[in-house]
Amino acid sequence: MKIALTGIVSLATAVMLAARGDVTLLSPADGAAFQTLTDGQMRVFAGETRSARFDLLKGVDEKATRKEWRRQRPLVLKWRSTGRDKYPWRICLATKPDMSDARDFWLEKEDVTREKSVDGRESTWEYKVPLANLELGRTYYWQVWGRVKCPTFSCGFTYPETCACGKTKHGSVSPVASFTTACEPPRWIELEGRVKNVRDIGGWTAEGGRKVRTGLAYRGQAFNDDSLAGVGAGRNRLMVEDVKYLTETLGIKTDLDLRNDREVADMTDSPLGPAVRFIRRSAPEYGGIFKDGGAKTMAANFRVFCDRANYPVYFHCIAGADRTGTLAYVLNGILGVAKEDLERDWESTFYPELPGVEDPFGWRSLAHLDKGFARYGDADDTLQRRIELYLIDIGITPAEIAAFKEIMLD
């Protein structure tokens, strides 16, 4: 299978060619809604409290839950064909109705699943799109091109009016269908390499019913392993296509690394390349952000997000869990995301387990954040207000907080 980003054929041309063949798009149906969260994610997120979500996890197939958790619901495309249209198929997936920004997936027999009709005149085909990484609340357009193979196998598998040898005309072209993704966060992102637990921190409902903008700040695991014995940078975890996706599609400009000196050794550049700004500060986690050294580092890291020139930002520790989760809690908390949603985002790293449920003051627990922020404000103050007072106490100015909100809130 080969994947390319093209806009070779206009919508008008595709519609004209569609009349010459018979490829029918089945699923997602035209105008359908597509839920990017899996059934397991939706089931657990329905719990109003952490203990309720823990109860929902009981009795769940842990292996299946782990397999489906840190990823979107797979995008499975289905279509029906008649006649000689088989493979190689060309699948176009775009965000523009004229298909000018389409990603092209060129599929051979082994890439698709086929089911024949009883009389053998029709076939239903199914393709699971790899690394779809769909955006939230976005309309997508898709189309299928069929092909009758050239009997001489000398013309390649492009889609001209006829083969170069003149023996085989093109196959069928379907009409364009659309589907729209749901808006429920988180937006999970899959990469080919060994970088997991990646998601957009946007999409949550914040102060005044506004939404945290997506496409600006991402959290996840480190792009490379920890250093061995603190000597030399750790092994790269990214594939070439991952670097291209992160820098070109997501447009990452800043790599904020929260690891300590021993973990990163002598790293000075991001694994994404020298064009990406690399910032490395050993960050605290949980209760550590309220201590002198941790507070100073939190202030410096927060200021990264107050400068529009740094965006989009990818921030991480080694696993994207504790240090990363603590910073994400503060970032979304100051935007006014509800405490229950802050907890859902933090918990998403650990499902199907929930740290801190049976030992609320174990080292890996949000109870330390609750205790720390409780020192600020009055009894009737919101969590957002308490986080604001904390940030001001560690040196962040109201103007910097306002700048961050202007960038991150719709």
Question: How would you summarize this macromolecular structure in one to three sentences?
Answer:
By secondary structure, this protein is α+β, with helices and mostly antiparallel strands. It is built from 12 helices and 16 strands. Helix 8 packs antiparallel against helix 9.
> Quick one: CATH class of the largest domain?
Alpha Beta
Instruction: State the end-to-end distance.
Output: 39 Å
Query: What's the CATH architecture of the largest domain?
Result: Alpha-Beta Complex
Quote the CATH topology of the largest domain.
Protein-Tyrosine Phosphatase, Chain A
Number of strands: 16
Strand order of the largest sheet: 1-6-5-9-10-3
Strand content: 15-25%
Provide a count of the helices: 12
Overall pLDDT score: 88
- What is the CATH homology-level superfamily of the largest domain? Protein tyrosine phosphatase superfamily
Per the principal axes of the C-alpha atoms, what is the gross shape?
elongated
Structure description:
With 410 residues, the chain is of the alpha+beta class. It has two domains: 2-36 and 72-181, Immunoglobulins (Immunoglobulin-like, Sandwich), CATH 2.60.40.10; 187-408, Protein tyrosine phosphatase superfamily (Protein-Tyrosine Phosphatase, Chain A, Alpha-Beta Complex), CATH 3.90.190.10. Helix content is 27%, strand content 19%. The protein has helices at 11-18, 39-45, 50-57, 62-69, 240-249, 261-264, 292-304, 322-334, 339-347, 367-373, 383-393, 398-408, and strands at residues 2-5, 23-27, 32-34, 75-82, 89-94, 103-107, 113-116, 122-129, 139-145, 177-181, 187-189, 198-200, 217-220, 254-257, 277-280, 313-316. Helix 6 (261-264) links the parallel strand 14 and strand 15 (277-280). The chain is elongated, with a radius of gyration of 25 Å. The two termini are 39 Å apart. Residues 1-20 have low confidence and may be disordered.
